[in-house]
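Design request, tokens follow.
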């Protein structure tokens, strides 16, 4: 039986750096102290005016392909996770396939908001495990939320940012490496708590909608503060049990980077050292579908992971969707 291994990875963040001082000046009050003390975000990256989700995705993919010595014609499937798509229709992945010259690759987009990258890993790995025609799968998480934020909204403007991360999954026969287990969970009762609620069929964009700002990202209701640590720790325990790998044998945990305190609480619930959960929001801000592959790159560059390590990926996003996957790297 063939399994899906993480062959190579890549990332990209825009050149434009937006510091906390930008928001101090924009809002006419000191928000830097709160951001740095309680959220530990010091700066973030935003797209240039002429830069879009497809540009971010393609740049991350190019790095992953170069590092893995993967030629465009070798990619069998491209999966892009994003909730800031290039268009309502067609898919972002169709444009990125053309940009990269992936002439043999089938494509599709998925949207489970910020849980999307891990969902994409789950889907891509299962394509490889189920069908031998899929030998090389490119999974990208891309996020250009700066295009959808109200810069005067203190709840969102200083947290959300842009970037993309890519993994190339390759088939490997009878391998001890690769995906070991996964889990998807959705709590749909929270679907109207946070999102970009206009632009689809429920609420098409009109002048009135634009005047009200409903075409931009909104946090409409407050999520229960315990929901991420509670669900993340439950997924971690379930995947540990499925793989028969004790939690303390995982080298790193990669969790959605929206709240550093939720990450720390999760590790405390699991009775594990906080430092084995990589945190990378400090200089990237919150990058949605891209945040987990960005954190992976940071850990890789810091020498925190090596081939043969057990790794846990757990994402969550509006919906409320959760995805977990356990891999041996």
């Amino acid at each position: 039986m063939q399994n899906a291994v993480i062959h190579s990875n890549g990332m990209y963040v825009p050149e434009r750096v937006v510091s906390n001082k930008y928001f101090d000046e924009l809002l006419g009050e000191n928000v830097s102290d709160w951001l740095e003390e309680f959220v530990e975000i010091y700066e973030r990256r935003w797209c240039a005016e002429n830069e879009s989700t497809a540009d971010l995705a393609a740049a991350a993919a190019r790095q992953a392909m170069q590092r893995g010595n993967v030629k465009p014609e070798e990619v069998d499937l491209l999966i892009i996770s994003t909730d800031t798509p290039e268009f309502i229709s067609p898919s972002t992945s169709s444009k990125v396939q053309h940009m990269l010259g992936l002439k043999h690759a089938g494509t599709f987009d998925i949207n489970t908001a910020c849980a999307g990258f891990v969902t994409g890993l789950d889907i891509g790995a299962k394509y490889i495990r189920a069908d031998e025609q899929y030998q090389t799968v490119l999974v990208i998480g891309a996020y250009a939320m700066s295009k959808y934020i109200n810069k005067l909204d203190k709840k969102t403007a200083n947290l959300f940012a842009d970037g993309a991360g890519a993994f190339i999954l390759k088939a490997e026969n009878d391998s001890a490496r690769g995906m070991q287990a996964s889990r998807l969970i959705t709590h749909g009762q929270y679907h109207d708590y946070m999102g970009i609620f206009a632009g689809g069929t429920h609420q098409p964009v009109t002048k009135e909608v634009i005047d009200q700002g409903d075409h931009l990202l909104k946090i409409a209701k407050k999520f229960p503060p315990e929901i991420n640590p509670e669900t993340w720790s439950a997924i971690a325990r379930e995947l540990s049990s499925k793989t028969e790998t004790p939690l303390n044998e995982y080298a790193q945990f990669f969790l959605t980077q929206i709240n550093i305190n939720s990450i720390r609480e999760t590790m405390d619930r699991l009775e594990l050292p906080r430092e084995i959960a990589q945190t990378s929001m400090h200089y990237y801000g919150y990058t949605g579908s891209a945040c987990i592959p960005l954190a992976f790159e940071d850990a890789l560059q810091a020498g925190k992971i090596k081939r043969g390590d057990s790794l846990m990926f757990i994402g969550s996003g509006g919906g409320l969707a959760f995805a977990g996957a356990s891999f041996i790297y």
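Comment from the thread starter after seeing the answer: thanks! The chain is about 30% helix and 25% strand.
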